[in-house]
Design goal:
Length: 54
């Protein structure tokens, strides 16, 4: 879980979670979801739709 300061919109939280998932997740296939929350507990979870690459 990643915690950020208050003031982020839900759209910004989702975009940040997706960014982490696509960048770090690209290098670490075991990363399948990212949860981002603000200090005041607004939470967004992004789940990867990963496909296996043979």
């Amino acid at each position: 879980m990643i915690t950020v300061q208050d003031g982020w919109s839900s759209e910004d939280l989702e975009a940040y979670a997706n960014l982490v998932l696509t960048t770090v997740g690209h290098e670490s296939p075991e990363l399948t979801n990212v949860t981002v929350k603000t200090d005041n507990n607004v939470v967004v979870e992004t789940v990867a739709a990963k496909t296996s690459q043979d």
